[in-house]
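Components:
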Amino acid sequence: MNKYKLTHLDYLESEGIHVLREVAAQFERPTLMFSGGKDSIVMLRLAEKAFRPARIPFPLLNVDTGHNFPELNEFRDRRAAELGAKLIVRTVEDALAKGIATQVPGELSRNRLQIPTLLAAIEEFRFDAALGGARRDEEKARAKERFFSFRDEFGQWDPKKQRPELWNIYNGRLIPGQHMRVFPLSNWTEMDVWEYIQREKLELPSIYFAHKREVVRRAGQWLPVNDLLPPKDNEEVKTLQVRVRTIGDIMSTGCIESEATTVEHIIGEVSTARVTERGGRADDKVSESSMEDRKREGYF
Amino acid sequence: MSNPDPKSIELLRFTTAGSVDDGKSTLIGRLLHDSKSIFEDQWDALQRSADLAGGSDVNLANLTDGLRSEREQGITIDVAYRYFATPRRKFIIADTPGHVQYTRNMVTGASTANLALVLIDARNGVVEQSKRHAYISSLLGIPHMVVCINKMDLVNYSEDRFREIREQFYAFVPRLDIRDVTFVPISALKGDNVVDESQNMPWYHGPTLLGHLEDVYIASDWNLKDFRMPVQYVIRPLTDEHHDFRGFAGQITGGVVRKGEEITVLPSGKRSVVKSIHLLDQELEEAFSPQSVVIQLEDDIDISRGDTLSSLDTLPYTTQDHDANISWMDEQPLVLGRKYIIKHGPNTTKVVFREVVHTVDIETLEEQHGTAELGLNDIGRVKFKTMAPLVYDAYRKNRNFGGFVIIDEATNDTVAAGMLRSPEKPAPVPEHKDYVI
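Structure:
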């Protein structure tokens, strides 16, 4: 037998490190989008591996919807401080105040409003590359996205004008005003992310683990009760043992009932899960093309 | 599905190609469904779109055809990447369209695959599309091939028909560079020999498709003989703690490197010894392709992005004049004499094409000489000169050190991908003056 054999996690790790180093080498002003969510935590780990013992050569960026889970923001700030990384936070609140983003009447979730907020931040700092933790297995519009995903002057993605990507060669050439979204975790699945978190013993925000929380049943999901999301008159507030599988805006992130209090338990749950990870995200359910539409506009 | 032990699971990447009616999407759907990789909400979404369309059957193609224009036209346009796992392996499928006008997508999907899955409709036998896919797989050096003879249910599960098609395929194989080929008779629709063994073909004693995908030996698919590491990035922390640290970061594209080993830096030809190999806080005794590592050398020599660290036993070519197979991917055809940008690993330089030696008729696979035109989806052989020398191995020897892309300076688009061949007159190996052998 051949002793020079990589496991799937080693292979994915090496691919991700390679992509991160290409970004550092090919771009003038890259940034890494760090929300404190599990995918961005894995991406940050890969960045450590890519550049240590030197510092990670780019700032971290987070678009705060104002609806973020408080546990997530606390984790985000602490982790950035531990790494000695510069953290830039731009808020939807601020974008609304400046008129960069405008709310549609009746729109509760702020996921869509992240788009103009992010694009404004990219313009403000003249970022030419933004690293994101998106994965191709999340959603079928993403299944066709490149590692280096080219955006025009309006931040838009054109699925028909994507650059061919072969071997491990990435074309990052731009003209000023354009930028690149780069996804080092493109080939990872939800399970790979959890197995890697386990292997690397990565710390996670507490909401990923089962905890008691007040929730209401709405549109087939358990939504967390909070100041922004008060229960309606006809809704019964229940206290359940829940955790989140994916984290978005607090208004649209469904919780799942779970007893999983460790990464091992979660891996067990993921391996028997019968619903995709984003199945709990109301924002993806609007139409069959809702992710594609948001991506075209400049979503992560 | 039981929970696989991540410490021993390998990843197999394979490519499929095909058009609407040869059952490719049904086959992928079957693999995902029978290995329990389709989730309930995906299934619900498929049923919703089937109901809306007024049809009653769930169309598994809707799982892979993710873009609106694809669903509208009922075709796969781009490469779609799909993921599934069994307790024994993880899989990435690069699902590509099969028509001539999507040759570039097939080439893209093939570039990273360990295995090509070629589909043949048992009623039609070997047709141009299956030949084209096999040819592209061979051109891109995919080490393994599985030929699935599909729709066996429509030919009464006939062993004779299976043998006949296998002979047709063998007759065509000598024109290709294929090292490992396996034939499996299947029915994707009925599930015969896809995941579960068929009860309808007792004459077949080979593995099921999934069984073969789980078993095929891929650990030797990487070149593990000739150490090569193109330097991507130089790591200099400049901190008190790591004041003298100067590490060369890159992904090993070939071979194995060991601590204490003497290596050479190309194209300069300078030599040094490996002082240490790092992966975050681990120090490694040896590292191999395709690991991404940081290497420190004993001597303080000038090395920057685009230089290659190489073993001394077997040296790569270092030349400015090149000969390559190429797949053109842009609507604007190749212009001889015009400057383009070539990207080979982390190395970027300018390039001028001098000659189209021949093009390949993708229908007949005949070489056509005397045609200077190389346009969208054409495949051919070209000669060109680069402004700076490239350090490379022939693609046939190392897929990850012999491939390149061509970029149009004006649009920044990636317009072609190529596979370097051995140069006709290999240039002498550069030898640094400080060293005398």
